[in-house]
Amino acid sequence: MEQKNPKKTIEYFKTALRFFVSFGLIGVILYLFRDQLPTVIQHLKGTNPFYFLAAVIVFFLGIISIAFRLRLVVMAQQTELSVGFAYYVNLIALFFNNVLPSSVGGEMVKAYYLYKNSNGRVAAFSAVIVDRLFGIITMILISISAILFWDQAQTSAKIMSSIFFLTLFVLMFGVLIFNRKIVDTLCQLHIPLVPGILLEKIREIYKAMHEYRGHKRIVPICIILTIVGQTAYIIANYLLARSLAIDISLGFFFFFVPILLIIGIAPSVNGIGVREATFLFYLSEFTTPEKALALSLLSTFFLIVVGIIGGIIFAFKGGRTASGNNFSLE
After folding, report:
1. Buried b / exposed e across 88-122, counting CB within 10 Å, b at 16+?
2. Burial class (CB in 10 A: 0-12, 13-18, 19+), 218
3. What's the CA gap between 276 and 205, in Å, rounded?
4. Which of 9, 246, 274, 321 has the most crowded CB, counting CB atoms within 10 A?
5. Where are the domains of the chain?
């Protein structure tokens, strides 16, 4: 009798969970909005192509900053990487985020290409982990700081509650990741309700961050680069809202877009369903539910478009032997 592979069973369960979450949420949303769908479609038909194209351009300009960040993180591991190749790797990740059932899938592809470019150095995987952590933590800080320059945030119970929990998460994460004793103690514990794979991930994250503790100079630079890159994505989402004639303050998107990206990590098929639910939860307080749903669908279409562009570039460049020295913006 053939024995079942526990790892395969877990992977099957994860995949099934992603599809259940995504299409379950989409099904619920479509059912609840079954009478308003014609209005939603009308909003989408009225999309201003100028604003949409501007959003695409701003988005790809923002990736330049993220490419510089990735280059800096990789070079801290004594591995050369051109900005051009770092940009290309980010485009590949963007494409695979659309074809793999998880946003983390693109990061694994990014790690693979960096691994090849670094002649098989395992440190490339640590670089991707740290690069992603810089992105996540900085996004959270941007979202929290929105309260300082967006007055309406203080009048919304949803937003204030979200900012409170984000602040608590950052503090807990900082204590956890940068304190070796806590990490070692936690990883040695056998907690019944906490899967061993989660503890292993915590250990991997700490190990990756620990390797960069001697490179304190790159931390503020990476934070600045992340702010520039994420600001571009925030403006892109603001332009998408403008394309639907939704008049919402730019300050809202400084709070909302980081939340959207963080929630996108949740088990789902490329954020489908989860993204739409998040739009409806937060946006319905500032515009009609129909426009909120229309913007969520337009945002999904936008990600598909930029992913296709990344895929086209990958198709043309992928046939070559990709090397960090073959792509350069410098």
Report:
1. bbbbbbbbbbbebbbbebbbebbbbbbbebbeebe
2. middle
3. 30
4. 274
5. 48-317
- Pick the more confident residue, 247 or 104: 247
Q: How many Å apart are CA 101 and CA 268, to the nearest integer? A: 7
Q: Which residue has the higher pLDDT, 71 or 262?
A: 71
pTM of this structure: 0.80
Q: Looking at residues 65-76, what average pLDDT do you find? A: 85
- Cα 11 off chain centre by: 21
Q: What is the pLDDT of residue 241?
A: 94
Q: Convert the pLDDT of each residue in 107-142 to its tens digit.
A: 777 777 777 766 655 566 667 777 777 777 788 888
